[in-house]
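agent> Task received from the user: take the single chain below, predict its 3D structure, and emit structure tokens. No templates, no multimer pairing.
agent> Plan: (1) validate residues, (2) run structure prediction, (3) serialize to tokens, (4) report one or two observations.
agent> Step 1 OK, no nonstandard residues flagged.
tool_call: predict_structure(input=
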Amino acid sequence: LSGLDPAQPYFQGTPLEVRLDKSDADFVDIIHTDSAPTIPNLGFGISPAIGHIDFYPNGGKQMPGCGKNPASQIVDLDGIWEGTRDFVACNHLRSYKYYSDSIIYPDGFLGYPCASYDLFQSGNCFPCPEEGCPNMGHYADKFKDKIKRGFLKLYLNTGEARDFPLWRYKVTVTLSGKSKVRGYVNVALYGSGGNTRQYQITKGTLKPDNTYTAYIDVEVNVGRVTKVKFLWNNNWINPTFPKLGAATITVEAGQNR
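)
tool_result: status=success, residues=257
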């Protein structure tokens, strides 16, 4: 039984027989997309974990792409009806859009078990544990026999628009060079499954021999990594033409460590 952002008003905090609960089926998975308090945030979705596994994409409260200005949203790519509806209840309706995307991407929407969204964002719950991570949406039930705890809270990030799934990687870069400079470092991943755009690993002071780590959510499952593109820029013309390189770059995929 899949709960697509089950309702908060009149249901949150009520007895089990009133609301959706994991006793309602052999396996209950929940996608929370609008779980901010109804007052004053107008959240429509229930916030506590109520299933065997509960997914909180983007933290479960505010979905990327839902903060667009009203005019752009009402005349949406999907037409005026879809746009008007999205303007009124964009976060709430993201749940069924993630679900429909999950049918097309059986390897997408990996939910990482974590105590909170902040810990997930900072990389504390990376990579997936030994038993792997469940997939939010249509294929969540593949994880049914691996649940060890009473409630399992899972976090992930999604894109702003279709296609929604993102894949999480940890990228560690150790710099080489002669002198420190200011600027930024970008990395793009190339692999058997496709290539990513550039992602920023760090910005500010760049020191040779220092190591910088970032967790990036990319738009393609790269598969076996075949190449990493390293790019740095110091934002302004420097007459000394400083040189900076990457001594090592390590890429770790969340799904298979």
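agent> Step 4: summary for the user.
The domain at 167-253 is CATH 2.60.60.20 (Lipoxygenase-1).
agent> Done.
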